Amino acid sequence: MTDPTYDDRDGFIWLDGSLVPWRDARVHVLTHALHYASAVFEGQRAYGGRIFALTRHSERLVRSAELLGFRIPWTVAEIDAACRATLAANGLADAYVRPIAWRGSEQMGVAAQRTRIHLAVACWPWGAYFGEDALERGLRLDISPWRRPAPWTAPTASKAAGLYMICTLAKHRAADRGYDDALMLDWRGQVAEATGANIFFVRDGRLHTPTPDCFLDGITRQTVMALARARGIEVIERAIWPEELSDFEECFLTGSAAEVTPVGEIGPWRFRVGALTRTLMAAYAAHVREAPA
Questions:
Q1: Which of 124, 154, 194, 249 registers the highest number of CB atoms within 10 A of its CB?
Q2: DSSP track, 237-292
């Protein structure tokens, strides 16, 4: 049996201040965000009825909108409350939660000063993003021909819908070639991230991760770095070049959807699903169920 499509489900979505039946949460075809990508969003997980790092996600949503030149007409506290209300209305304890804010249909064309700003929150059950078997075998990553843009060419610190267009292209290409996902380089040719998750490497008991100067410094990324340092593991943020990948022993991805997922292969390079990766997988899984929202 296949899962229902995302427009045809039972449940409720929070839309512009109130909970509405899932199937009634609709927007007009001339919505500015649909034509010009003027939307920002978050992805966060609930564990045992609590949304992990909720306020940090809501704060980032507000900052992302500001970077795109609009203000969300709800406070961080109100966004937090909307997320909790949506989770409760759908009767979910473990779920993925998706807030999204966008410019509406009051104005058509590149300019959007007169558009109304909308906010919606949806949530649904979502297991391991890459599947349970990936947690054991490690992911296979292609190397994408698409690169993360320079920060002076796009609002790269914003979790903006438009920045994910090349991620979809990269992920589809990877799937067509038999891979799980893709490694994206940045405009300089340095290692950046996967299509929707940050990346870490292990060498000699130390963690190495790219400096997030043209892609999101993920909340899961920050959490895993703190967990590693609390266990005496050195974390090094630096520029990483593809030719260095042969020197690393382990590799894993981090993200709210991906959580901590090991990588077994990137193009011609191989990695083991080793002890340090498994330590941080377990630490993160415990932390998100213990930490306050």
A1: 194
A2: EE---GGGGGG-SEEEEEETTTEEEEEEEETTEE----HHHHHHHHHHHHHHHHS-
Catalytic residue among 159, 171, 208, 221: 159
User: CA-to-CA distance for 181 and 174, rounded, in angstroms?
Assistant: 6
Question: Which positions ≥6 away from 258 have C-beta within 8 Å?
Answer: 129, 130, 194, 196, 197, 220
Residue with tokens 């304890």: 93
pLDDT tens per residue across span 110-143: 999 999 999 999 999 998 888 888 888 999 999 9
Tokens of 223: 């959490």
Structure letter (DSSP) for residue 154 = S
* Interatomic CA distance for residues 137 and 134, integer angstroms: 5
Write out the residue limits of the CATH 3.20.10.10 domain(s) in the chain: 134-290
> Of 173, 240, 166, which Cα lies nearest the Cα of 203?
240
Does position 1 have pLDDT exceeding 60, yes or no? no
CATH architecture of 12-124: 2-Layer Sandwich (3.30)
Task: Report the chain's C-alpha Rg in angstroms.
Answer: 19
Which one-letter DSSP state was computed for residue 118? E
Report the alpha-carbon distance of residue 271 to residue 83 in Å, rounded: 38
Q: Which CATH class is domain 134-290?
A: alpha beta
Confirm whether 159 is a catalytic residue: yes
219-250 per-position pLDDT tens digit:
999 999 999 999 999 999 999 999 999 999 99
Q: What is the pLDDT of residues 20-31, one digit of tens each?
A: 999 999 999 999
**What's the full length of the chain, in residues?**
293
